[in-house]
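User: quick one
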Amino acid sequence: VPAGRGTPDRFSSTDPEDREDIARTLDGDPSAFTRLFRRHRERAYWIAFHLLGNAEDAREVVQEAFLRVHRSLDRFDRARPFPAWLYRIVTNLAIDRRRRGGRLRTVPLPRGAGATLGAPQDGPAELLDRKETRRRVREILEELPPKYRTALVLRELEGFGIEEIALIAKTSLTAMRWRVHRARCLFREEWESRRRRTRP
Amino acid sequence: MTGNSICRRVRRWLPLWVGGDLTGESAQLAELHVRTCPRCAALHTSFRGSRTALRSLLPQPEEDGWTELAWKGDPPRFPARRQPPRRGRLRGAAAVLLLLGATCAAALLSHPRRGPSPSPEKAADVQRDATPEPIRIASTEAAPGISHPGAGGAAPAALWSDGTSEDVSSPMTTSSGGSGDVPGSNP
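Assistant: Done. Structure below.
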């Protein structure tokens, strides 16, 4: 998991901060929910961003997800980890949005992301190459069925363990292991196929 | 175990092993086998390459200032949740309602009603009658023991055979509290 990405790496069903803020929110304290939002928004945003491909849609999905959480917080089972619930809502909303919106629309990052894609010593050719790699990867991800795309994003880009992804997707550990396995196979096949086409 | 069967097994494990999702003896066996089998090594390299490409989507340290990118200004305002009614409050409201009801009932029972009283003869008839049909009393003459505090009107009243009186159109009550005995009536 990249450093400084907000939430802890491991889910905890007894995270005291989450539990306290949920209880306070239910008692009518709006600042408690703002704390909950600030703690989890960053990772929620990146999950949505990787599934949707652009910052604007990702932000809207995260806002919608938090509004839904806020509406149904009293029905949340506090014995379960809060992030798993939140990220499940985020992934479901992102997949729904993709389904409704059709093809992925990629919006360049506002600060000129092309200049930040590579290491500082990379020359223009390396930067271009990296940008092209990202474009292809996004295309392949877009073509994967949603369950495999979500599994790859959560495992490879967000660094969740398979157990945690199983919690998020509400599936068994075995099923999620198989899903990650299959997702990597599908991605590799498509990646190699495109590579062979572009570099004969 | 033959070479082919090891290859098949390791190839099944490779997608998990490449992402660090294979542990224990399986991971050791895969590692050892890939060192000696060129075909499995090539597949392993392919998996690693595709995984590296996928991970190129990871935000770089410079991109981590996501707040500026995505969330300009303050976070969205979430409405305050409506607090559910508390049990204590419900209990208090129920107690008040109960008290109010009891007071009203006591006032109705103790306060004399206005209107005509049944004559002793008719009242005695009613007492004998076993059917629950209400008997209309035409007489406006006051019977002994039945108070008439207001002006005696001709409002009809119904008296039930079980001795209780029930209003039909105007309030009327007996001072005996509806015991069924009509004082002064002829048997």
